[in-house]
Amino acid sequence: MASDTPWPLPLDAPAADDLSRCVHCGLCLNSCPTFSVTGLEAESPRGRIYLARAVDEGRLEMTPAVQAHWDLCLQCRACEAVCPSGVAYGRIMEHVRAQVAAAPKKDRLQRRLRSFALRNVVARPRVLAAMVAPARWYAGSPLRGLVRRTRLLRSFGRLAVMEAQLPRRPGKPVRPGDTLAAPLGAAARVTLFTGCVMSELFGGVHRATARVLARSHVAAVATPGQVCCGALHAHDGDLAFARDLARKNIDALEGGDIIVVNSAGCGAAMKEYGQLLAHDPDYAARAAAFAARVRDFSEYVVTLPGRPAGQLDARVAYQDACHLAHAQRIREQPRALLREVQGCTPVATAGADMCCGAAGIYSLVEPGMSAELRARKAAQFREHAPDVVVTANPGCQMQYEAAVREAGLDARVMHLAELLDEAQRNARRR
Length: 430
Ligand code: SF4
Ligand code: SF4
Description:
binds iron/sulfur cluster; 24 helices; alpha/beta; 4-stranded parallel β-sheet; 9% strand
């Protein structure tokens, strides 16, 4: 760790070793969504690391202009995946954000409100459930059709985007302790991580996950006591709170079961609990052991022998979730599972592995860049007209709902688990 630096929080300062790994080769530039939009070096991975190093070495003040360049980063980690020097960009940016969160800035109130909401709404299941319930009701109600037909929201930019992002059929929530599909003759048992927004708005994905596992004789248990993974807090620079949530999950889910996660962002964060708690003498070893048990849904399902065949006649555009492809380096497994589905025709779209602009709460706090990236996806969907858009993360699913609508298509947006579940049911009916 850097010490005696100008950072406001020396404890969570980016490590000087991490910062010095960047050799300025520029091989990451073409993978960076923000650089591809603005063309500005300061909005590239290399530029952002350069700024962080200059602040770390006391050559530059952490001015609002410097912070704005970091704020625009999606934390998609596409740069990290292509970096030949192994720069841990995700870790650097989480620590940089911790410094920004602690620094004086003109929009301090906005930051405080965001941090308050992340701590007191997102991480509190009852409060979150109460806040999300009207949106869930609206999403499946006839009122939605009326609002869309009359274009009531067209003058309310951000609200209109949020409306377009709502899933079409959110389904009943799945919360820790709920009973899921029971397999016949269960051969194995896993813990299903339910998450925060995922559990309230994507209960259907959790049920589909449990059914797919059950057909391979694996019982998925929504183990009680688990809480939000802390990814959104860490990305926002609230590392202290992210650590608290990680400790709670470790306490609740300690044991031998594999932990299956169907949200790419949660899975990436939980696989890095060892790193997050490396300096906690009581939890460091437990966190590393916990992280080793975490598997993404596709990563786990692809290892199951004798998984049933599926049938779905559809042109399917798979879009990589950043925290699956870049952070967890899982690209092949979802595609392999889709190839097993009879009738499923892959549709290759340009930039399938480039960020869609959802990025946690990014679409709310950086709506301009988020809209630009969504428009690129919409243009690809318009050109290739898939029947189904598939991904593996709730934020991406929401952004693709809006992108499909923007493209003027009626394509379905599905989680990989939902597609496999439907395909397996179709195959059984034949
Ligand atoms: S982050 Fe990696 S790829 Fe990008 S400039 Fe630095 S060393 Fe090169
Ligand atoms: S995390 Fe994504 S947006 Fe941020 S610098 Fe890296 S590639 Fe660019």
